[in-house]
Amino acid sequence: MESRTKLLGHAVHPMLVMFPLGALAMVVVFDLVRYFSGNPFWSELAFWLIPAGVLSGLIAAPFGAFDWFSIPSGTRASMIGFLHGVANVVVLALFAMSGWLRWTDPTSPTSGALACSFVGGGLALVSGWLGGELVERLGVGVDTGAHVDAPSSLTSKSPIRS
Protein backbone atom coordinates (compact mmCIF):
# COMPACT_ATOMS: atom_id res chain seq x y z
CA MET A 1 0.00 0.00 0.00
CA GLU A 2 1.56 3.27 -1.10
CA SER A 3 1.74 6.41 0.99
CA ARG A 4 -0.80 9.07 0.05
CA THR A 5 1.56 11.96 0.76
CA LYS A 6 4.77 11.96 -1.23
CA LEU A 7 7.60 14.33 -2.04
CA LEU A 8 9.82 13.50 -5.02
CA GLY A 9 8.37 9.99 -5.07
CA HIS A 10 8.96 9.18 -1.37
CA ALA A 11 6.54 9.11 1.54
CA VAL A 12 6.66 12.33 3.60
CA HIS A 13 5.94 10.87 7.06
CA PRO A 14 9.09 8.71 7.25
CA MET A 15 11.15 11.67 6.05
CA LEU A 16 9.88 13.83 8.90
CA VAL A 17 9.86 11.39 11.84
CA MET A 18 13.64 11.33 12.05
CA PHE A 19 13.58 14.88 13.45
CA PRO A 20 11.41 14.30 16.53
CA LEU A 21 12.91 10.86 17.12
CA GLY A 22 16.45 12.25 16.98
CA ALA A 23 15.74 15.30 19.11
CA LEU A 24 13.76 13.44 21.77
CA ALA A 25 16.23 10.55 21.90
CA MET A 26 18.99 13.08 22.58
CA VAL A 27 16.94 14.52 25.46
CA VAL A 28 17.13 11.11 27.12
CA VAL A 29 20.83 10.77 26.32
CA PHE A 30 21.64 14.24 27.65
CA ASP A 31 19.57 13.61 30.79
CA LEU A 32 21.65 10.48 31.41
CA VAL A 33 24.91 12.34 30.75
CA ARG A 34 23.80 15.05 33.20
CA TYR A 35 22.93 12.42 35.80
CA PHE A 36 26.29 10.66 35.57
CA SER A 37 28.47 13.75 35.07
CA GLY A 38 26.66 16.23 37.30
CA ASN A 39 27.28 18.93 34.67
CA PRO A 40 24.13 21.13 34.30
CA PHE A 41 25.14 22.06 30.73
CA TRP A 42 23.64 18.77 29.52
CA SER A 43 20.28 19.49 31.16
CA GLU A 44 20.08 22.83 29.41
CA LEU A 45 20.79 21.17 26.05
CA ALA A 46 18.07 18.62 26.79
CA PHE A 47 15.66 21.43 27.68
CA TRP A 48 16.12 23.15 24.31
CA LEU A 49 15.77 19.92 22.36
CA ILE A 50 12.33 19.27 23.83
CA PRO A 51 10.46 22.00 21.93
CA ALA A 52 12.34 21.06 18.74
CA GLY A 53 11.27 17.42 19.16
CA VAL A 54 7.69 18.18 20.11
CA LEU A 55 7.17 20.74 17.32
CA SER A 56 8.73 18.51 14.66
CA GLY A 57 6.56 15.64 15.95
CA LEU A 58 3.48 17.81 15.53
CA ILE A 59 4.57 18.54 11.96
CA ALA A 60 5.11 14.84 11.16
CA ALA A 61 1.84 13.69 12.76
CA PRO A 62 -0.68 14.90 10.14
CA PHE A 63 1.22 13.11 7.38
CA GLY A 64 1.12 9.87 9.36
CA ALA A 65 -2.57 10.37 10.13
CA PHE A 66 -3.34 11.02 6.47
CA ASP A 67 -1.59 7.78 5.50
CA TRP A 68 -3.37 5.89 8.31
CA PHE A 69 -6.77 6.95 7.00
CA SER A 70 -5.96 5.22 3.72
CA ILE A 71 -5.36 1.84 5.41
CA PRO A 72 -8.39 -0.44 5.07
CA SER A 73 -10.31 -0.56 8.36
CA GLY A 74 -10.51 -3.85 10.22
CA THR A 75 -7.01 -4.87 9.16
CA ARG A 76 -4.03 -5.64 11.38
CA ALA A 77 -2.26 -2.67 9.78
CA SER A 78 -5.10 -0.35 10.76
CA MET A 79 -4.91 -1.44 14.41
CA ILE A 80 -1.12 -1.18 14.53
CA GLY A 81 -1.28 2.23 12.85
CA PHE A 82 -3.81 3.36 15.45
CA LEU A 83 -1.59 2.16 18.32
CA HIS A 84 1.45 3.77 16.68
CA GLY A 85 -0.36 7.10 16.41
CA VAL A 86 -1.76 7.04 19.95
CA ALA A 87 1.63 6.08 21.37
CA ASN A 88 3.25 8.97 19.53
CA VAL A 89 0.70 11.45 20.89
CA VAL A 90 1.48 10.17 24.41
CA VAL A 91 5.23 10.47 23.71
CA LEU A 92 4.83 14.09 22.63
CA ALA A 93 2.67 14.83 25.68
CA LEU A 94 5.23 13.26 28.03
CA PHE A 95 8.09 15.28 26.57
CA ALA A 96 5.99 18.46 26.59
CA MET A 97 5.27 17.82 30.28
CA SER A 98 8.98 17.23 30.88
CA GLY A 99 9.76 20.57 29.24
CA TRP A 100 7.09 22.34 31.26
CA LEU A 101 8.46 20.84 34.51
CA ARG A 102 11.95 22.12 33.58
CA TRP A 103 10.78 25.62 32.68
CA THR A 104 11.80 27.42 35.89
CA ASP A 105 15.28 25.87 36.02
CA PRO A 106 16.37 24.13 32.80
CA THR A 107 19.74 23.20 34.32
CA SER A 108 18.23 21.17 37.18
CA PRO A 109 15.32 18.97 36.04
CA THR A 110 13.03 17.55 38.70
CA SER A 111 12.58 13.82 39.12
CA GLY A 112 9.16 14.21 37.47
CA ALA A 113 10.72 15.87 34.43
CA LEU A 114 13.26 13.08 34.16
CA ALA A 115 10.59 10.41 34.60
CA CYS A 116 8.55 11.95 31.77
CA SER A 117 11.54 11.97 29.43
CA PHE A 118 12.60 8.40 30.29
CA VAL A 119 9.08 6.98 29.99
CA GLY A 120 8.56 9.00 26.80
CA GLY A 121 11.83 7.69 25.40
CA GLY A 122 10.88 4.09 26.19
CA LEU A 123 7.45 4.52 24.64
CA ALA A 124 9.05 6.10 21.55
CA LEU A 125 11.05 2.88 21.09
CA VAL A 126 7.85 0.84 21.21
CA SER A 127 6.10 3.20 18.82
CA GLY A 128 9.08 3.18 16.47
CA TRP A 129 8.91 -0.62 16.42
CA LEU A 130 5.20 -0.39 15.56
CA GLY A 131 6.02 2.00 12.72
CA GLY A 132 8.65 -0.42 11.47
CA GLU A 133 6.11 -3.23 11.65
CA LEU A 134 3.76 -1.19 9.48
CA VAL A 135 6.36 -0.56 6.81
CA GLU A 136 8.62 -3.60 6.86
CA ARG A 137 6.17 -6.35 7.75
CA LEU A 138 2.86 -5.05 6.46
CA GLY A 139 4.10 -2.96 3.51
CA VAL A 140 2.28 0.23 4.47
CA GLY A 141 3.75 3.22 2.66
CA VAL A 142 5.74 1.02 0.28
CA ASP A 143 5.49 1.63 -3.46
CA THR A 144 3.47 -1.16 -5.06
CA GLY A 145 6.18 -1.75 -7.64
CA ALA A 146 9.10 -1.70 -5.23
CA HIS A 147 11.87 -4.21 -5.92
CA VAL A 148 15.67 -4.29 -6.01
CA ASP A 149 15.84 -3.12 -9.66
CA ALA A 150 13.01 -0.56 -9.62
CA PRO A 151 13.78 2.68 -11.48
CA SER A 152 14.48 5.89 -9.60
CA SER A 153 11.45 7.54 -8.05
CA LEU A 154 12.48 10.69 -9.94
CA THR A 155 11.80 9.06 -13.32
CA SER A 156 8.41 8.91 -14.93
CA LYS A 157 8.69 5.15 -15.39
CA SER A 158 6.32 3.01 -13.40
CA PRO A 159 8.20 0.58 -11.12
CA ILE A 160 6.29 -2.50 -12.25
CA ARG A 161 7.76 -5.83 -11.21
CA SER A 162 9.00 -8.04 -14.00
Q: In percent, how helical is the residue content? A: 55-70%
Number of discrete helical segments: 4
Bulk shape: elongated
Structural class: mainly alpha
Please tell me how large the radius of gyration is. Answer: 18 Å
Sheet with most strands:
2 strands, antiparallel
Strand order of the largest sheet: 1-2
What's the pLDDT, averaged over the residues?
89
Order of helices and strands: EEHHHH
Poorly predicted regions are none
Termini distance?
A: 18 Å
Number of strands: 2
Number of domains: 1
Percent of residues in beta strands: under 5%
Structure description:
- The structure is a single chain.
- This protein has 162 residues and is mainly α.
- It has one domain.
- It is 67% helix and 2% strand.
- The protein has 4 helices and 2 strands; from the N terminus they run ββαααα.
- The protein has helices at 12-37, 41-69, 76-102, 111-137; strands at residues 6-7, 10-11.
- The protein has a two-stranded antiparallel ribbon.
- β1 and β2 form a beta hairpin.
- α1 (12-37) runs antiparallel to α4 (111-137) and α3 packs antiparallel against α4.
- It is elongated and about 50 Å long.
Q: How are the secondary structure elements laid out?
A:
Layout: E1 6-7, E2 10-11, H1 12-37, H2 41-69, H3 76-102, H4 111-137
Antiparallel strand pairs: 1-2
Helix pairs in contact: 1-2, 1-4, 2-3, 3-4
Provide a brief overview of the structure:
By secondary structure, the protein is mainly alpha-helical.
